[in-house]
Amino acid sequence: MAEILIVDDEPSILALFRYVFEDAGHGVVTARNGVEALETLSKLTPDFILLDVSMPEMSGKEFIVELNRRAVSDARLGGIPFVVMTGENFMEAELNKVFSRARGFVCYFPKMTPPEQVLKKAEETLKLK
């Protein structure tokens, strides 16, 4: 069983992916933005992160920048695999640059991707870890 951190500001997305990952036997912790996710990371180290881009207080992009900054002094935070799930245009140069160069980046999915496909990618990634 892996510990999954789901970071999204939409309650329906949090509930859906919590169900999908828990149904597959994984533990799930949720956060509604990057600030909450960083607070969570002070208490536990997840095996995998599912991350939204557009969120209040701290976006997914800001979260990853801060996570990588903190990983310099806290090795347990370095390289946690993560998938970006967004309704935004991921190919927009700035988003693509920030995420694709970050340690742990696996891939991105549009928000309308079937949850089972996201679960499959997470489990494939966890096997390689």
Short recap of the structure:
The chain is α/β, with parallel strands linked by helices and 129 residues long. It is 43% helix and 19% strand.
Protein model, in words:
- With 129 residues, this protein is an alpha/beta fold.
- The protein has a single domain, classed as Response regulator (Rossmann fold, 3-Layer(aba) Sandwich).
- Helix content is 43%, strand content 19%.
- The chain is built from five helices and five strands.
- The protein has a five-stranded parallel beta sheet.
- Strand 1, helix 1 and strand 2 form a beta-alpha-beta unit.
- The longest helix has 14 residues.
- The mean pLDDT is 89.
Could you name the key traits of this structure?
129 residues; alpha/beta; Rossmann fold; five-stranded parallel β-sheet; 5 helices; 43% helix; 19% strand
Give the ordered list of helices and strands. EHEHEHEHEH
Using the coordinates shown, work out and report the CATH topology.
Answer: Rossmann fold
Q: Can you tell me the overall shape? A: globular
Strand proportion, as a percent range, falls in 15-25%
